[in-house]
C-alpha cells in the first residue's frame, strides 16, 4: 500500500490538469492505510476506491519465486471495471510518475486492445523465442503500464481464454511470466505501441555497479514520464537512498505518505540486497549487521 499511495500521489502532483478516479486492488489494507488514502484524496481533490481481494480466488492459478498471486489483480481489475468504464490506465505499485500523462488521454482507440510499451530488448527476443511467436519480437510489452481499452476487453470476453492460458491448458503450456505472457498472447499484438518514456524500466541493482550513481540519467531522462522500478529493491526501501530513487521521495514528501518510514528488509531476498547496498553506501557497520541477519535467516 505504501508504494501504491506514493505512486498515486506522484500521478496527481504531475497532472493537476487531469481528473482521475483511482482503483486500488489489494489483498490487505488496515485502517491507517485507508486513512492515508482518504487524506490523499482530500489533499488532491480526487477519488480513490480500494477493493479488498480474497486470495483464495486465485488458488488454482500458478505462482513463482518472482510472481505472486497478486499479479492476477491486474486481470481481475480489467474484468471487473470493464462493466462500468471504457478505458483504464493500469500501473504497478512500483511505478512513479514524473511527467504529464496528457498524451494518453488523447489516444483514440479503434479496434486495439491497449496502448502498451515494448519491454526491454533482451526480454523481447527471449519471450518471442520462448512463446514461439517470432513476430512478437519488438512487440512484446511489459505489463507494468497498460492503457487498456476496456470496451474492447469486454466485447472480446478475454477472461476465459486468459484463464486457460494461465492454467497451461493451451499449446503454449506453462507461462514463465504468467499473466504478462497471457496478456501478450491474448492481445495478439493488436495494440498501439508507445515510446519507452511511458514505462522507463530501471532497477536499483544498477547502483551496485555505479559508484558515481549518475549513470541512471542515461535511462531516466527529462522526457521520462513513468519510471518502473523493477527488481527486489524498491525506492521505498531504507537502503535505496540513491539519486535514481529521488522521484519517489519527492512525491512522498509532498503527500500524506511522508509520515511512514522507509521499509526495512523482511524477506531473505530483501536482506541479501540490503547488505550489498549498505556496503555500496559505505555504511559498513550496518552492512555487516545486515549480512549477519541475512546469514541467520538464510
UniProtKB/TrEMBL annotation:
Signal peptide: none annotated. The keyword Metal-binding applies. Pfam families: Glyco_transf_8, Glyco_transf_8C. One of its GO terms (molecular function) is lipopolysaccharide 3-alpha-galactosyltransferase activity. Pathway: Bacterial outer membrane biogenesis; LPS core biosynthesis. It is an enzyme of class 2 (transferase). Its EC number is 2.4.1.58. Keywords: Glycosyltransferase, Lipopolysaccharide biosynthesis, Magnesium, Metal-binding, Transferase. Coiled coil: none annotated. Residues 242-298 form the Glycosyl transferase family 8 C-terminal domain. Its cofactor is Mg(2+). Belongs to the glycosyltransferase 8 family. This is UDP-galactose:(Glucosyl) LPS alpha1,2-galactosyltransferase WaaT. It comes from Escherichia coli. The gene is rfaJ_2.
